[in-house]
Design a protein that fits this description.
Length: 163
């Protein structure tokens, strides 16, 4: 039981906070979670070293929504990462983003409304975010009219309890 609680707490420290020092304070190098924390932390530094650009769209309700885009030379395949509620988008997506990029995908990491640098004070838990995601897809379709898009949404373990 303690390991599950510890994993949940570490998840929140790793993915939902810009500073992960609390996660490191919780575990020592002998702990099995230490490597996970280090991998997540290092992957953010690694992905930020890739060529990237900041993108912005305007939502249907006039919010400026921001994203980080990591192009992969010559690719028309794009992976769009949808981060979790209150998550730090770049930290959550860095490790899988590096993986997709290594497979030849462009990687788009949007900050959902009311998260990070994107505008907004409220979230809708889906309806408005779906419209926002459609706008991001449209932007990618304009860049690569004959491209392919994969939308990767992290499955929330808590969601399985709602069924």
């Amino acid at each position: 039981m303690f390991e599950k609680q510890k994993a949940n707490f570490l998840f929140h420290q790793l993915l939902k906070r810009p500073d992960i020092s609390k996660a490191y304070k919780m575990v020592g190098p002998e702990d099995s979670w230490y490597d996970t924390i280090t991998t997540v932390h290092n992957s953010l530094a690694q992905i930020r070293q890739l060529r990237h650009e900041n993108l912005q769209i305007t939502s249907h309700d006039e919010l400026a929504l921001k994203a980080v885009y990591y192009p992969c030379e010559g690719s028309k395949k794009t992976m769009i990462w949808v981060h979790g509620y209150t998550s730090h988008a770049e930290r959550e997506s860095a490790f899988p983003g590096l993986f997709y990029h290594s497979l030849g995908f462009n990687v788009l990491i949007p900050y959902l409304r009311a998260h990070g640098p994107s505008e907004g004070k409220l979230i809708s838990f889906g309806p408005l975010e779906t419209l926002d995601m459609m706008a991001w897809v449209e932007l990618i379709n304009q860049k690569y009219p004959d491209g392919q898009i994969v939308i990767h949404q992290r499955k929330c373990p808590e969601a399985t309890k709602l069924k």
